[in-house]
Design goal:
With about 110 residues, the protein is α+β, with helices and mostly antiparallel strands. It contains four helices and five strands. The protein has two domains: about 40 residues, no CATH class; about 60 residues, Irregular (HU Protein, Chain A), CATH 4.10.520. Strand 1 and strand 2 form a beta hairpin.
């Protein structure tokens, strides 16, 4: 089973084709969108939610401290401070397309 890796440039190229625009114009917009999302998610707030209708929800959630975590190499008990983690929850349309069996997608 193989996987495909798409880059930001691939997203811009595909979007430019869909909209009939020049790729250099769309690259700036795509880069601006991703930069804005990163800045919004990096704000010093415990939890953040960015909802993109018909696509999904990006969330930043706090984690709890783990005062008795163990280093698997040394078996040393260490304290892991609370931090934040990212989470993506797909929207209804994306969920429906991901639920299709792989057999029907290859055909």
């Amino acid at each position: 089973m193989s996987s495909i890796t798409y880059t930001k440039r691939d997203v811009a190229r595909s979007t430019a084709r869909k909209l009939g625009l020049k790729i250099y114009m769309v690259e700036e917009i795509v880069d601006g969108v991703f930069t804005t999302l990163r800045e919004m998610m990096s704000k010093e707030v415990p939890s953040i939610r960015i909802e993109v209708r018909n696509f999904g929800v990006f969330e930043v959630k706090p984690t709890k401290a783990k005062p008795k975590a163990r280093n698997p190499r040394t078996n040393e008990i260490i304290h892991v401070p609370p931090r934040r983690k990212t989470h993506f929850r797909p929207g209804k349309l994306l969920k429906q397309s991901l639920r299709q069996p792989l057999d029907t997608l290859r055909g």
